[in-house]
Design goal:
Two copies of one chain form a homodimer.
Chain A: H1 7-22, H2 29-36, H3 40-46, H4 50-74, H5 80-96, H6 103-108, H7 116-143, H8 152-173, H9 177-189
Helix pairs in contact in A: 1-2, 1-4, 4-7, 5-7, 5-8, 5-9, 7-8, 8-9
The structure holds a DNA duplex (18 and 18 nucleotides).
Chain lengths: 194, 194
Amino acid sequence: MKVNHNTAERILDIAQELIQRRGYNAISFTDIADGVGIKKPSIVHHYPSKAALGKAVVKRYRETFASALNSIANDPEKTAFEAFDFYCTPYLDYGKTRDMVCLCGALAGEFTALPKSVQKEVSQFFEAHISWLQMILERGKNSGEFRFSEASHAMAMHILDSLQGALIVKRATGNFEHLDKTIELLKEKLCVVG
Amino acid sequence: MKVNHNTAERILDIAQELIQRRGYNAISFTDIADGVGIKKPSIVHHYPSKAALGKAVVKRYRETFASALNSIANDPEKTAFEAFDFYCTPYLDYGKTRDMVCLCGALAGEFTALPKSVQKEVSQFFEAHISWLQMILERGKNSGEFRFSEASHAMAMHILDSLQGALIVKRATGNFEHLDKTIELLKEKLCVVG
DNA sequence: GTCTATACAAAGATAGAC
DNA sequence: GTCTATCTTTGTATAGAC
């Protein structure tokens, strides 16, 4: 994890982590300011409102994922299986922590209580992931790596749903097996030879 | 849906619906009071704190489920497939709504920001559902209705995760297909003949 | 760009009349 | 059991000095 020394970015770092741990409506400028080591009005200087900060956090998260997923997809050396495995990595990592979930998984739990601009980013995140997964699934099917009978779009939705669900249930039960088992079952479902 | 005329129960009804729509930290005594048609202090008369109210809401939800699941499991007329199908019904129903998710799915998204007493109820809800599903899966395997190679406990976790994840992603994307597709895929995975 | 000080609204909760 | 009135804290946000 890269460490930022730029204040605007450090605010995003702390805000993101706090949302992943506690959610959007449970955190305040004071919490973020304490984490960064500055005062409340300094945050407002960088982000004019909580909604603007929330949007910036999700936008960065979404774009970081988009960039990484894009790289993998465009790398001719990578197989569809490797791309799928890469996709699972952050879920596995969060799955090992006691109280962190995907940023957008946390936000989805309080979706209708979010500012519209934040909702939009969250929706885009999920839609981009479903599209990317669908593409990788089709590629793997064509290459013979994957074997499944369902529509690739339905499979893509199912993979996303399972991983997001596994993270939130993991945290609520304290059972860290959820992620490992989910990925195992998904791979089996895809008939991965891997 | 039964309509309650008892104030204490009506408070639980409204609080539950509001949490399912917006989450715990985004709602207030004022929101609930407006929904019930009373004033804030009347809520406090019935539930001494927000934490106590939250706990009561989840406890009732959990017990209502436990009772229904118990009835199905103890009914000798019901097959394992019928029990599984019954389990999916509320998810399907919430899946058709624009902005409702499972009460405990919503709460899981802000788990660490919940009062300890509420956390405990949510954990118990998930654990009870996993145990119940595991039992039904084993029963179906023994009767020849289900065919799966994984541990029944892992399958039970996976079913719960998928359904919970499908609900929150459904709401965040506005794509109502998530639940239907999830259940279809789960049934196929179980090699359901039914 | 960061701070102190402050405004203003909303939150959870209490006191006490009816 | 429900209300009005109030307390206290915390929230987001602004003004203006440094």
